[in-house]
Design a protein that fits this description.
Length: 215
């Protein structure tokens, strides 16, 4: 299955992507995670991306698109994938469509995680991430005051772009550039929206129910 997850920053895309991808045995491809791994490894790509990410702006399309093109051509993505964080504007969506058509394929479904702005701010302000396994936690909801990843023992960190003023800007960027994708994919007839509030397991159940017809 070829799936795209959309939703505002903090909607739970990364959290749900880890469960959905493992349930469907497809790779989870997160552009944000790939950029963060490049920043940690101090690559040229990472240095470029960091300037945009720290401000909450989008990394330029040509950089992001060529990175995704390379990733989608890897063996493990041949028969399916879950994209988290890409596409993020209409030009990226149009390029993805053309790219898949070149390979004689297309997206099956775009899953929209619907959640309001107050909840998003609450989730982002308490988010912690593991630098080793990329697992996402929340200080309060997961009782993670010890700052240690239960899965691998990694030291959890807070993302630079989760500072309040940057979060506010990311929400504006989402409204201006990413929200139009909802209409784009609705016009294509492949959009499915789910309520992304409530316990993580409930959201996962709704997501898998919405995806079942495409399996
Ligand atoms: P990216 O990493 O994609 O960030 P984002 O889209 O802003 O999304 P987030 O990762 O902030 O949120 P999420 O929806 O994954 O929520 P999460 O599961 O973590 O992008 C970062 C930057 O990279 C961008 O700003 C841009 O600069 C650049 N970039 C990336 N892709 C790009 C592209 N295609 N083009 C250009 N630039 C690009 O959950 C949040 C918190 O809530 C966690 O603490 C979690 O534990 C908690 N939580 C989740 N679900 C629940 C629940 N049901 N109940 C309670 N808490 C929950
Ligand atoms: Zn970990």
């Amino acid at each position: 299955m070829r799936i795209v997850l959309v939703g505002p920053p903090g909607a739970g895309k990364g959290t749900q992507a880890q469960y959905i991808a493992s349930h469907l045995s497809i790779p989870k491809i997160s552009t944000g995670d790939i950029f963060r791994a490049n920043i940690a490894a101090r690559t040229e790509l990472g240095q470029l991306a960091k300037q945009y990410m720290d401000r909450g702006d989008l990394v330029p399309d040509e950089v992001t698109i060529s990175m995704v093109r390379d990733r989608l051509q890897q063996e493990d993505a041949r028969d399916g994938f879950l994209l988290d964080g890409f596409p993020r504007n209409v030009p990226q969506a149009e390029t993805l469509k053309k790219m898949l058509a070149e390979w004689d394929t297309r997206l099956d479904v775009v899953l929209e995680l619907v959640v309001d702005e107050d909840e998003v701010v609450r989730r982002l302000s308490g988010r912690r991430q593991c630098p080793q396994c990329n697992r996402i936690w929340h200080v309060d909801f997961d009782d993670k005051r010890d700052g240690v990843c239960d899965d691998c023992g990694g030291r959890l960190y807070q993302r630079d772009d989760d500072r309040e003023e940057v979060v506010r800007h990311r929400l504006e960027v989402y409204a201006e550039q990413t929200a139009p994708l909802v209409q784009f994919y609705s016009d294509e007839g492949i959009l499915r929206g789910i309520d992304a509030t409530g316990p993580v397991e409930d959201v996962t159940r709704r997501a898998l129910d919405a995806l079942r017809p495409f399996e």
